[in-house]
Amino acid sequence: MDWLNISAEAGLWGLFASSFLAATLLPGGSELVLAGMLRLHPEQLWPALLLATLGNTLGGMTSYACGRWLPKWQKIESLTQQERVSTWGAPILLLAWTPIIGDALCVAAGWLRLRAGPCAVFMAIGKFARYWLIAIAMQW
Questions:
Q1: What sections of the sequence does the record tag as coiled-coil (predicted)?
Q2: Dihedral of the CA atoms 9, 14, 20, 23 (nearest 10)?
Q3: Helix (H), strand (E) counts: the chain
Q4: Is 6 helix (H, G, I), strand (E, B) or coil?
C-alpha cells in the first residue's frame, strides 16, 4: 500500500470530518474511513476511536440543533420517531448511529426540546460502541 501514503495526522483529520458529515443528513460512510485509517495506522486506534466518536456526536448534535430550531407547532416528518423519542427520552439516542432512523431520532430529540447534555452523552455512547465494534472486527 505504498501508493496510499497518508500520514496519521491527515488520516485523523479526514476521519473526524467524515464522521461529522456522516452524522448529518448528508450521505457518508465514516465506517470505511475508520477501517482504512486503522489499516494504515493501527497504532492510532484510540485517537481514531475518540475523534470518530467526537465528530459523529457533533454531527448528531447538529441534527439535534436543527430540530430545536423548528417551531414547535410544525409537524415532524416521522411521527413514529417522535413517539419513540417521547416515550424513551434521551436514552433512545443510543440508536443515533443507525442508518436513516438515527438522523430522525436526533432531529426529533431537538424538536421535543429534550435536554442537550443527556442527549449528547447517550448519542456518544452509542456511536463509540459502533466504532469500537468496527475496530474489533478489523483485528480479525
A1: none
A2: -130
A3: 6, 0
A4: coil
All cell numbers assigned to 90: 434521551
Which residue from 25, 50, 28, 49 is spatially nearest to 107, judged by alpha carbons?
A: 25
CA distances from 132 to 57, 64, 78, 87, 100 (A): 14, 23, 30, 28, 20
C-alpha cell at 17: 470530518
Among 52, 19, 22, 37, residue whose Cα is nearest residue 138: 37
Residue 18 has φ and ψ, to the nearest 5°, of -65, -45
- Reading the chain (140 residues) residue by residue, the pLDDT tens digits are 455 677 888 889 999 999 999 988 677 789 999 999 999 999 999 999 999 999 999 999 999 999 999 876 655 555 565 666 667 789 999 999 998 889 889 998 999 899 999 999 999 999 999 999 999 998 77
Cell numbers of 44, please? 492510532
